[in-house]
Amino acid sequence: MASPSKATRPAPGAATSSANPQAITSRDNRWLKAFRMALRGGLPAEDGAVGVEGARLTEEALQSGCRIEAVLFSESGERYRERLAPLIGRPDIAFPVLHTTDRLFAGIADTEHPQGVAALVVPRTVSFDDLVRTPVGACSPLLVVLAGVQDPGNVGTILRTAAAFGATGAVTAASGVSGTASPFSPKALRASAGAALHLPVLAGMSLPILLAQLKVAGISTLASSVPSPAEEVTAPLLAPWQVDWCAPVALLVGNEGAGLPADVERNADARIGIPMSSGVESLNAAAAAAVLFYEAARQRNSVATSSVQSTGARPTENAAPNRPT
Q1: Do residues 5 and 98 touch, judged by C-beta distance below 8 A?
Q2: pLDDT per residue over 273-305, tens digit each?
Q3: What is the CATH number of domain 128-311?
Q4: How many CB atoms lie under 10 A from the CB of residue 276?
Q5: Where in the chain is CATH 3.30.1330.30?
Q6: Mean pLDDT over residues 63-67, rounded?
Q7: What does the DSSP 8-state code read for residue 54?
Q8: pTM (2 d.p.)
Q9: What are the CA-CA distances from residue 107 to residues 43, 101, 103, 113, 253 (Å)?
Q10: At 324, which helix (H) or strand (E)?
């Protein structure tokens, strides 16, 4: 099937972009097929567009700077048009605005109770060089590497947490155990609350190649681990507060059940664990990532504040705020 964006995308400023939406009355319409594949099927379109559903996620997509292929409203979804109007009506990013019935929208939606608004969005292209570059306002790159995290809900939650605590980028890679769920699947995007569209994400890298590139780039790798009695003596874990999170760091998060492959843990620059009460074996992968990134944010915000106080300068717009996280 030809890409809908290539076949029917209007020229900038065309009336169909907002004021006079295209009405879709057939389930075989090419746009509905694209939305159905992206939302219910969880597969990207030929041009890489993925589906987001719901007023909040559509709003996040429109604000992300990613290319929008189309926005679709159902009859009941029209109540969100005023809220999204400032983002839809911009002539510099014109795209088709489509309208369909509630019945047809329910046939393409991935949620049980659809709000009646969705968008096709092309995630930003990210290179490895983009990831290891220090963004303005950050003291260093802070990356999260998801290696074999299979549950899309965990993938999205980890990305949301990482973004909330100041991570500068993310990578998804297969481990020796399994692949990692796509960060742009509908469930992962919902769990990330749209963070995957804002945070630079490099998806589908080879883990051995990634680890080699990180070493060359001077990014230290921290393997999140669960201690066993035999390992505690020969290879103790660092506690979160023993890590210098202001240095260039990539946190490796492994499979929910099996964790990281043994060779990845051995070859990482350090292993990190979360001290817990006896009788508790481990935390959920997303919960563990939240604990670790909270400590990272605490250290990085403290350094940013100390730097401002020592120079007497005002914080820049992009500097991490010194506030409770």
Answers
A1: no
A2: 888 776 666 788 889 899 999 999 999 988 655
A3: 3.40.1280.10
A4: 14
A5: 4-122
A6: 92
A7: S
A8: 0.82
A9: 16, 10, 7, 12, 36
A10: none
CA distance linking residue 186 with residue 121, whole number of Å? 12
CA distance 324 to 8: 48
Residue span(s) of the chain under CATH 3.40.1280.10 come to: 128-311
DSSP string, 3-48: -HHHHHPPPTT-GGGTTSPEEE--TT-HHHHHHHHHHTS----TT-
- CB distance 145 to 252 below 8 Å: yes
Q: Where are the beta strands (DSSP E) in the chain?
A: 22-24, 50-53, 67-73, 97-100, 117-122, 142-147, 169-174, 201-206, 220-224, 249-253, 270-272
Please state, in angstroms and rounded to a whole number, the distance separating the CA atoms of residues 99 and 275.
Answer: 53
Architecture of the 4-122 domain? 2-Layer Sandwich (3.30)
HSE on the CB side for 136, CA within 13 Å?
Answer: 4
Helix (H) or strand (E) holding 254: none
Tell me what the mean pLDDT of segment 256-261 comes to. Answer: 84
Residues 6+ apart with CB under 8 A from 82: none
Question: Contact at 8 Å (CB) between 118 and 53?
Answer: yes
Antiparallel, parallel or unpaired: β 117-122 and 50-53 = antiparallel
Q: Is residue 141 within 8 Å of residue 126, measured between CB atoms?
A: no
